[in-house]
């Protein structure tokens, strides 16, 4: 485990802990596109500890700034307030949503006030993972080995769709209620537990997802899910508040043209989160654009 990855994760967790609990407007994150903005202001809402949205938020900040918009970065700590902000118009864009399965409950509640601006990645999935040295390969094997894991699966934020899927579907579906407790707190805390366990070569099970840089930073493997209770693969979407495309047609056109494959997405996330890190996100996006100058169809100079 390269220490820069853990440092980045802990820094992001600290940012998340200090982030707003709601969607009050007027708070621009350091590094936002101040100046210019002759076309108005677009607010991006994201969760810093969920690095898929962190990386695509800074990509959009760069591209929308080049279109002439002032971009305000709004950080939150849970998905629920972010969907509320979208529905109320306090946030203009959620730059990496999981609306098909993981966040379906939020879409069921707020979907009529939210606009789908397009999917940028089509193979996202939720997983239960263990270090590669652990000699079990399937979720079905967890029940017989509960003592080895101290009856715990380490999860992320309580309001995450991954948490809901694990708690309400996977655990009862595999008969793990009573044998396992899902321990939730934050993404950074989960990664700390994983890092500590791997350093000590101890057994640990965690909730993870793909795409996520931690799958490459740590030597882990996804447990097989023969019943499919962690859900099918889904696409990651850009979501806008209702009426966004009509109000900002050029921005909507640009966003619709973003289509990233595994290599492109993985490189973007690694550059923003790890190679450059907090405070240097704009440099990371510039480096990524140099590496993939034609990554999406409406690329601007």
From TrEMBL:
Compartments annotated for it: namely: Cell membrane
Name of protein: Glycine betaine ABC transporter substrate-binding protein
Extract the Pfam families matched here: OpuAC (PF04069)
Give all residue intervals belonging to the ABC-type glycine betaine transport system substrate-binding domain: 41-291
Keyword Membrane present in the record's keywords: the answer is yes
PROSITE patterns in the record, alphabetically? PROKAR_LIPOPROTEIN
Q: Alphabetically list the UniProt keywords.
A: Cell membrane, Membrane, Signal, Transport
InterPro entries, alphabetically? ABC_Gly_betaine_transp_sub-bd
Organism from which the protein derives: Microbacterium algihabitans
- Show the PANTHER family listed in the entry: GLYCINE BETAINE/PROLINE BETAINE TRANSPORT SYSTEM PERMEASE PROTEIN PROW, GLYCINE BETAINE_PROLINE BETAINE TRANSPORT SYSTEM PERMEASE PROTEIN PROW
Q: Which residues form the signal peptide?
A: 1-29
Q: Where does this protein chiefly localize?
A: membrane
